[in-house]
Amino acid sequence: QVQLVESGGGLVQAGGSLRLSCVASGRTYTMGWFREVPGKEREFVAAISWSGSSTSYANSVKDRFTISRDNAKNTVYLQMNSLKPEDTAVYYCATDLRGGWTTTTKRVPETADFGSWGQGTQVTVSS
Question: Given pLDDT bands bounded at 50, 70 and 90, which one contains residue 42?
């Protein structure tokens, strides 16, 4: 099972930017980012296909966040701009798709669609 390690979280003021990174221990295919707030279910943020040619975003982050990847470094990134206090969460990287979801599927992916997860990185946006 591939190991995933996230980094880049921190404290930022509203309107600011952060870039998260997720390094995989081996080759990965579709990769995604989710986030979780205490007391709520982990929710989808963004995903990217192996080639990078196909991406998917949650409506709440569309036009503010950008997912990208560097396969030579086994790394996926999440560039987060125009951050809002409601973006505060632990952000998790995920891979190992199960169940047939792809970045072109209309359905919003669930945590069960991914089989491997990182440990998470905290993002806090102050108002």
Answer: very high
